[in-house]
């Protein structure tokens, strides 16, 4: 909690500890300084919190931390040391910095705030929301981004239209000018162009705007506070509607303090108790003046609050994405004071001019000293930056580590558990902030719903980043997995050929189930071969490899598919020629084993050309050719103990008799196949190589032996599993 808020700040502050550090650095070497820095970074024995002010130039920030809250000020760059508790910087913070922070540390910027602070980003985000909600997002002047929207902007020039052009990233009124002529604009330079509001609200004949301070202390969920006090900045020249003669008079059309303070007509405020005097006044004094003029100030404030909330809704997904502290369920490691510049027209309608992520905290007048000192002090109090809170967070982390050591694993919370923890922290935060708001007012969350704006902003962000495409793909995959596996026979299953193993199973299942239709006469002939009482010939093996049901289509279902599906399968198998080469060799091995059986030797020699290539079989179907295929297939470890249908023959004697003849037939068939296909699907086959083939899930009792592989001219080796 803060102490002695009544301490007066006169605009100057010097820290004695900083002077001592500077003097010691003059007499110490770099090695000694580095050692001291390491010692300080390892231990923080100070009872007071450490506030890092190495990257801020404002004396009021150091004064509030040192004199009011009794913080120990630290001047070592916060990127080089990590023992600070609270950091105040004048520059933007990167997501990497937030990711390295500990749970008890706090910093005064949100990563990704460029989406509001940069004029071009602010204009783009608001324009996207205006396309969907044209009536709701009419609180800012019509805006164009140059040079990307130069052609559209060029068409806007007409009768007595005045435009104001601002650089994309500038402050304090630098580079701003008014124009009525398109020729005065360089089409290649980057500007943010806006329609000039030519009927502003005037006080004492002067144009003015409001600098309102908004505190964002949470992005997920969004949490906004509006400071009840601010500044009213007046121009120093009496306002006249813009014309060709006064477009260059910046002290008439611009209200920036940095521009008007150098004008000899500028009146400085010399007494904080007289807030309604001079060209820089308090916001409350302006509202009181409007009330005295019977203006509806309450409605004006309600419109300003609505304007602020809608502006944050347009960038909330960006801030949430850049907030990299996923375990910070309290949503309180970052906060930021933003300066909203509001212009009021003659009908008392507020317009958003720009947003400043580092509003100036210079205190060259008593009014600045009073307002900005209390603003910073109330912010630190509202964010609950104190020793007690720090110790509670550290103790909670220690308890989590002890549980992890005892259990040996990190507990993973479900989505519902995370929501409950967030709600619990939110309740504790609401209770604390309701009693320590100071001069702040909570404007969001509120009774009015802004969910539709947040949802549309999220949709825009996902379309911009491509997150919606990934989410839709994930939903489609989940829907496919949830579909029932058992479909009706009238609806054939889709063929899935994504991996080599699936392709192997697919083609083999087609061979095993008579994929290619045959004539009824041929089917009857094949059935007449096996008569009652006779044993099954050895060329038809009972055991077949197990095929995955998801990739297995029976012949009856496949017959119902059209000829176009077979054409697609043919085209796909031609692309996967390398995998089909293995099947050709397996078929070749199968023929080699069958030739050892004398009673079926001649039958296999006649059909060897039809068995060698599955691609030729598929093409045969397209040409209307009826090809008889083997119904069952397997790879045996050996061909021992095969029973003959007619009579039993001794295998050893039988092999000796037909060894030479079978080898000659195999070589002759191989030469014929090579001559007919001198250059195959993947190039000419020149030299045979022997590789070891392995099946991913072979049938029990079977093993695929080493087979000769015919490879391409470059002798590239391929591994198949």
Automatic annotation (TrEMBL):
<dbReference type="GO" id="GO:0000226">
    <property type="term" value="P:microtubule cytoskeleton organization"/>
</dbReference>
<protein>
    <recommendedName>
        <fullName>Tubulin-tyrosine ligase family protein</fullName>
    </recommendedName>
</protein>
<keyword id="KW-0547">Nucleotide-binding</keyword>
<feature type="region of interest" description="Disordered">
    <location>
        <begin position="1"/>
        <end position="36"/>
    </location>
</feature>
<keyword id="KW-0436">Ligase</keyword>
<dbReference type="Pfam" id="PF03133">
    <property type="entry name" value="TTL"/>
</dbReference>
<dbReference type="GO" id="GO:0015631">
    <property type="term" value="F:tubulin binding"/>
</dbReference>
<feature type="compositionally biased region" description="Acidic residues">
    <location>
        <begin position="12"/>
        <end position="31"/>
    </location>
</feature>
<keyword id="KW-0067">ATP-binding</keyword>
<dbReference type="GO" id="GO:0070740">
    <property type="term" value="F:tubulin-glutamic acid ligase activity"/>
</dbReference>
<dbReference type="GO" id="GO:0005524">
    <property type="term" value="F:ATP binding"/>
</dbReference>
<dbReference type="GO" id="GO:0036064">
    <property type="term" value="C:ciliary basal body"/>
</dbReference>
<dbReference type="InterPro" id="IPR004344">
    <property type="entry name" value="TTL/TTLL_fam"/>
</dbReference>
């Amino acid at each position: 909690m803060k102490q002695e808020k009544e301490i007066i700040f006169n605009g100057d502050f010097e820290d004695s500890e900083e002077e001592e550090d500077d003097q010691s650095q003059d007499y110490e070497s770099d090695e000694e300084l580095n050692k001291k820095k390491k010692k300080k970074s390892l231990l923080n024995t100070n009872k007071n919190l450490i506030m890092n002010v190495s990257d801020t130039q404002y004396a009021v920030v150091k004064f509030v931390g040192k004199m009011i809250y009794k913080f120990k000020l630290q001047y070592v760059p916060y990127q080089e040391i990590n023992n600070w508790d609270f950091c105040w910087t004048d520059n933007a913070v990167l997501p990497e910095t937030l990711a390295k922070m500990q749970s008890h540390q706090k910093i005064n910027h949100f990563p990704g705030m460029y989406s509001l602070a940069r004029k071009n980003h602010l204009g783009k985000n608001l324009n996207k929301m205006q396309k969907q909600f044209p009536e709701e997002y009419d609180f800012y002047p019509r805006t164009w981004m140059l040079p990307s929207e130069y052609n559209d902007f060029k068409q806007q020039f007409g009768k007595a239209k005045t435009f104001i052009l601002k650089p994309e990233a500038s402050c304090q009124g630098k580079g701003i000018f008014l124009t009525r002529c398109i020729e005065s604009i360089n089409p290649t330079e980057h500007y943010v162009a806006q329609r000039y509001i030519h009927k502003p609200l005037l006080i004492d004949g002067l144009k003015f705007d409001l600098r309102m301070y908004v505190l964002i202390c949470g992005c997920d969920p969004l949490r906004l506070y509006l400071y009840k006090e601010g500044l009213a900045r007046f121009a120093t020249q009496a306002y006249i509607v813009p014309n060709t003669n006064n477009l260059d008079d910046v002290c008439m059309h611009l209200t920036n303090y940095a521009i008007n303070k150098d004008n000899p007509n500028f009146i400085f405020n010399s007494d904080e108790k007289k807030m309604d005097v001079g060209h820089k006044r308090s916001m409350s004094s302006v509202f009181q003046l409007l009330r005295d003029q019977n203006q509806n100030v309450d409605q004006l404030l309600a419109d300003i609050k609505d304007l602020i909330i809608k502006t944050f809704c347009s960038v909330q997904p960006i801030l949430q994405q850049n907030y990299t502290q996923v375990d910070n369920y309290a949503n309180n490691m970052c906060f930021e004071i933003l300066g909203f510049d509001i212009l009021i027209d003659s009908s008392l309608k507020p317009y958003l001019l720009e947003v400043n992520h580092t509003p100036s905290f210079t205190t060259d007048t008593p009014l600045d000293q009073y307002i900005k000192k209390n603003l910073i002090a109330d912010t630190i109090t509202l964010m609950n930056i104190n020793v007690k809170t720090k110790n509670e967070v550290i103790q909670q982390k220690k308890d989590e580590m002890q549980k992890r050591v005892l259990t040996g694993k990190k507990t993973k919370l479900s989505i519902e558990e995370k929501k409950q923890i967030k709600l619990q922290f939110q309740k504790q935060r609401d209770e604390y902030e309701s009693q320590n708001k100071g001069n702040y007012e909570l404007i969001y969350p509120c009774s009015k719903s802004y969910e539709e704006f947040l949802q549309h902003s999220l949709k825009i962000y996902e379309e911009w980043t491509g997150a919606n495409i990934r989410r839709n793909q994930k939903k489609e995959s989940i829907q496919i997995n949830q579909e029932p596996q058992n479909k009706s026979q009238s609806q054939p299953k889709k063929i899935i050929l994504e991996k080599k193993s699936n392709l192997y199973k697919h083609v083999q299942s087609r061979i095993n189930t008579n994929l290619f239709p045959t004539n009824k006469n041929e089917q009857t002939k094949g059935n007449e071969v096996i008569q009652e009482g006779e044993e099954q010939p050895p060329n038809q093996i009972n055991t077949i490899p197990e095929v995955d049901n998801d990739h297995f289509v029976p012949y009856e279902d496949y017959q119902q598919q059209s000829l176009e599906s077979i054409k697609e399968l043919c085209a796909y198998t031609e692309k996967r020629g390398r995998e089909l080469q293995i099947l050709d060799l397996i078929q070749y091995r199968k023929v080699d084993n069958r030739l050892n059986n004398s009673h079926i030797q001649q039958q296999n020699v006649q059909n060897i050309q039809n068995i060698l290539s599955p691609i030729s079989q598929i093409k045969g179907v397209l040409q209307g050719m009826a090809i008889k295929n083997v119904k069952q297939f397997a790879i045996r470890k050996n061909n021992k103990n095969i029973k003959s249908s007619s009579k039993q023959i001794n295998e050893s004697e039988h092999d000796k008799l037909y060894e030479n003849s079978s080898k000659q037939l195999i070589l002759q068939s191989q030469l014929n196949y090579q001559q007919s296909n001198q250059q195959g699907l993947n190039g000419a086959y020149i030299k045979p190589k022997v590789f070891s083939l392995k099946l991913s899930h072979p049938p029990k009792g079977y093993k695929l032996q080493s087979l000769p592989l015919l490879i391409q001219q470059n002798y590239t080796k391929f591994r198949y599993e």
